[in-house]
Amino acid sequence: MPRNPAQTAVVTVSLPVPMAKQIERSRKAAHRTRSEVVREALRYYFNAQPDIEDAGRQAYLNAKAGKGLSPAFETVEEGQHWIAEQRRLARRKR
Predict the structure, then answer these.
(1) Does the global pTM surpass 0.70?
(2) CA-to-CA dists, residue 15 to 21, 31, 72, 86, angstroms
């Protein structure tokens, strides 16, 4: 894939040395660039993962419908209030 500044972004990452060496071995064996090897690995990763955004949205909807382990909250403060209330209730039961 040729590098076109209008269609690409440069991303800098830090890798453990053994992983960087593995990328070098793989790219040399396949006669490919480092970018090609990393792009292919990321494509594989993204295709193997469930759509996280959809999963999060579904979990939220389930919780709102009372199907989750705990309710969904519109704000962090609502969640914190719910946690505090659950702690108070648990202390009363002791």
Answers:
(1) no
(2) 10, 21, 37, 42
